[in-house]
Amino acid sequence: MIESKPPGGLPGIENKPSAAGTRVDASPAVEKSWNTVRNPDVPRFLALFIFVLLGAGISSLAFPASPPIGRGVLPGGLLGFLAWLFYDGWQARRLLDWLGRLQKSSAALAATPLPARLPHFWREIAERMERLLRQQQRALQKQRLLTENLVDALQASPNGVIMLDAARGIEWMNLSASRHFGLDERHDVGQAITHLIRDPVFVACLASRDFANSINSIVLTSPCSNAHRPLRLSLRLCPYGADRLLLLSQDITQIEQAEAMRRDFIANVSHELRTPLTVLAGFVETLQTLPLGEDQRQDYLARMERHALRMQTLVADLLVLSRLEDSPPPGLAPWTPAHTLLAACAAEARALSELLARETKTKTHRLHFPETHGLGEIAGNAQELQSAFINLVGNAIRHTPPGSRVDVLWQNNADGSATFAVRDDGPGIAPEHLPRITERFYRVDSGLSRESGGTGLGLSIVKHVLQRHGATLDIDSAPGQGACFSATFPAARVRAQAALPPGAGPREA
Ligand SMILES: Nc1ncnc2c1ncn2[C@@H]1O[C@H](COP(=O)(O)OP(=O)(O)OP(=O)(O)O)[C@@H](O)[C@H]1O
Ligand SMILES: [Mg+2]
Question: Which of 30, 141, 312, 472 has a CA positioned 20 to 30 A from the CA of residue 502?
C-alpha cells in the first residue's frame, strides 16, 4: 500500500514517516478502543482457560469411570488447549488476510474495515496497526506534497539544475537544464555528464573536484547555440549529500551582450571624442607657438569651432538617447496635426540643404513635401516625433549627392495606421549594412559621415522614438537605387481625418 517514491519525485528523497504526532488521525472507534483496552491479555488467557476447562469437563463427563488425572481430564484439557491454539491461529490468519488487503493500495486503508468479531487481543493489534498505518500515510502525503512542490519550484526556475550521482551520472534535471544543454530527460538521465557536456574546462573542473573555485569560472557556449539564437552559459558545481553534485547553469547571453554593448559604447564615445580633441589641442598649440598671419589664424579658429561643435552635437545626441531610454513612453495625447510636423520638417530640410549647398558651392536638393492640411493627427511627444522625422530627412539630404531628389510622404492606411516615409534617389545602402544601421555609431561610410558632421547616432535616436510610439521602421534600399525609410504608426496613435484630396501628392518645395 505504500509507494516507495512519489511520481516525478527527486532521487534520494525518501518518504520518511513523520515522527511527530501521536493521535493525529485515529477514527473515533479506534480512538475509543485505544483508550479503553488496557490489557488485552486478560480475555485471551481467560479464553484459553475456558477452552482447557471445557475440554477437561467434556472428557470427564464422557469417561466418568476414568481416574481424574491422566486418563480423562488431562487429555481433555490438552485437547481444549489444542482447540484454543487452532481458534487463536485462525484469528491471526484473519488478521493477516486483512493486512494483505491493506497492502494492495493506499486507498484500501480507508475502504477495508477491521475483520468482524475479532477477539480483543487481535483486535487491539489490528487497531494499533491501522493507527500506525494512518499516521504513516498522512506523513507520506505531507512528504509527497512537499516533494512535488519542490520539483515544481525547480522546474519553474529559469536556471538549469542537474543532479549528479557519485559516478557523475545524471539523476535528475529540470526543464531549463534540458533547454540549456539540449538534453532529453527520457534518454539522458543515467548518462555520464561528461559524455554530454564535453567542454574541456568543465571536464577538468569535474575531475579536479575543486568545486569551491568553480563559482562563475565556467563559462561556455551551449551546444544548442547558433547564429540566430546565441546561448552562453555560466556553470556552477555545488557538492551536496553523499558525494553528489548539483550542476547549476545560468543563461548569461543577455548579460554578456549588455556588457559587450557597454564596452563598445565607451570605446565608441572615446573614439568620437578623441579625434576632435586631438585636433583642437593641435590647433591650440599651433596658435600658441607659431606666429601666424591673420587669415591663417581665422582659418584655424574656424576649424576649431567645427570640431568643438561636433563634440557638442555628440554630447547633445547622447543626452537625447539617455533621456529617451530613461523616460516613460508617451501617452495617447496630445494630438498634433501631421501637417504641422511636416511643415517644421520641410523648413529645417530646406535650411539644411541650402547650408550644404553654400558650404560645398553646389546646388540644393530637390525636396518634395505633401502640402495638405487634411493628413490627420498623431498622438505622442511632438518634439520627439519632429526630431525623428528631421533625422530621416536630414539623412536623405546629407547622404545623397547635391541635387538629389528627396520625397517626403504621408499615407493614411486602410487599417487606420499611418506611414511617414522619406525616399531619395541617392547611392542607396548595401544589404549587409541594413540589419545594423540603427545601432549606435554605426555608419556605412564612417569617413564621409564624420566629414558631414554626423555622429552616427541619428538612426538610433529615430529607432528609440519610434519604438516609444509603438511605430515600426522599415528600410528599403539597394546600392544605386536610393533609399526609402518609412515609419508606420499604429491606428491607436492616428486620428485620420479626411482622405488625401486629389492632387495632394508631393509638390516641388
Ligand atoms: N538616406 C540614406 N542614404 C544613404 N545612406 C544613409 C541614408 N541614411 C543613413 N545612411 C547611412 O546610415 C548611417 C547611419 O545614419 P545615422 O543617421 O545613424 O548617422 P549619421 O547620419 O552618420 O550621423 P547623425 O548622428 O548626425 O545622424 C549613415 O552614416 C549613412 O552611412
Ligand atoms: Mg543621421
Answer: 472
> Same domain, yes or no, for 316 and 368?
no
Query: How many angstroms separate the CA atoms of 212 and 235, rounded?
Result: 12
The residue nearest atom 31 of ligand 1, judged by CA position, is: 444
Q: Would you say 161 and 153 are in contact if contact means Cβ atoms under 8 Å apart? A: no
Q: Tell me if residue 247 falls in helix, strand or coil.
A: strand
End-to-end CA distance of the chain: 90
Q: 399 in ligand 1 pocket by Cβ < 6 Å?
A: yes
DSSP designation for 95:
H
482 lines ligand 1 (CB under 6 A): no
**DSSP states along 283-351:** HHHHHHHS---HHHHHHHHHHHHHHHHHHHHHHHHHHHHHHHHHSPPP-S--EEEHHHHHHHHHHHHHH
For residue 191, being part of any structural domain is answered with yes
* Together in a domain, 149 and 179: no
The Cα–Cα gap between 345 and 449 comes to 21
How far is Cα 222 from Cα 234, in angstroms, rounded to an integer? 10
CA Rg value for the chain: 45
Residue 164 domain flag:
yes
Q: pLDDT for 379-428, tens place per residue?
A: 999 999 999 999 999 999 999 999 999 999 999 999 999 999 999 999 99
Domain region containing 415: 330-508
Cα(364)–Cα(404) distance, rounded to whole angstroms? 8
* Nearest ligand to the C-alpha atom of residue 460: 1
Residue 433 alpha carbon, nearest atom of ligand 1 = 12
Q: Which residues of 418-439 are buried (b: 16+ CB within 10 A; e: fewer)?
A: bbbbbbbbbbbbeeeeeeebbb
CA 329 to ligand 2 centroid distance, Å: 23
* Closest CA to ligand 1's atom 9: 395
Looking up cell 550521482 gives 165
Backbone angles phi, psi at 154, to 5 degrees: -65, -35
Same domain, 390 and 501: yes
For 203, half-sphere exposure in the C-beta direction (CA atoms, 13 angstrom radius) is 8
pLDDT of residue 505: 44
Task: Please tell me if the CB atom of residue 483 comes closer than 6 angstroms to any atom of ligand 1.
Answer: yes
- Into how many domains does the chain fold? 4
The residue to mutate among 269, 389, 449, 464, having the most atoms of ligand 1 within 8 angstroms of its beta carbon, is 449
What digits encode the pLDDT tens for the residues 242-275?
889 999 999 999 999 999 989 988 998 998 899 8
Candidate of 314, 398, 459, 463 to mutate for ligand 1, largest count of ligand atoms within 8 Å of Cβ: 459
For 260, phi and psi rounded to 5 degrees? -65, -40
Query: What is the pLDDT, as a whole number, of residue 39?
Result: 61
The parts of the chain modelled with pLDDT lower than 50 are 1-8, 14-37, 498, 500-509
* Count of CB atoms situated within 10 Å of the CB of 251: 18
- If asked whether residues 484 and 466 sit together in one domain, one would say yes
Do 359 and 484 fall within a single domain?
A: yes
